[in-house]
Specification:
This protein has 118 residues and is mainly α. It has a domain of 51 residues. The chain is 69% helix and 0% strand.
Length: 118
């Protein structure tokens, strides 16, 4: 029996998935074991939630200010306008993350289809 190579059909994908599973899953289970005893109102849980929120906010701003790939074709004013529309929609539509993201994406799409913003 041979070990599949990356160019051998699905064998390479299965190998990569298995390696990712082995590297990732133990940490998820450890987090579950530790986290089930932490109250949602505890200082530790609030700190983790605040740090996670700050990391996501930082990544979003990095994507807006220093885009890569296809996002580079969209002008900075349009990216900032889409952010503003998304944040406003988030708060006006009951703090719905999905609707806020959809509103921002719809803003970019509408402006690009109108022939502006890029």
């Amino acid at each position: 029996m041979t070990i599949p190579t990356l160019a051998d059909g699905y064998g390479g994908y299965l190998t990569l998935a298995l390696i990712a599973l082995i590297a990732h899953e133990p940490w998820r289970w450890l987090g579950l074991a530790i986290g089930k005893n932490i109250s949602e109102d505890s200082a530790a849980f609030l700190w983790v939630r605040f740090v996670a929120t700050a990391l996501v906010a930082g990544l979003v701003m990095r994507l807006i200010l220093f885009p890569a790939g296809a996002l580079q074709t969209i002008t900075l004013p349009l990216r900032l306008a889409a952010l503003a529309v998304g944040v406003i929609a988030f708060f006006l539509l009951g703090r719905s993350l999905g609707l806020g993201i959809a509103a921002g994406a719809a803003t970019v799409l509408a402006v690009r289809l109108a022939g502006f913003g890029g």
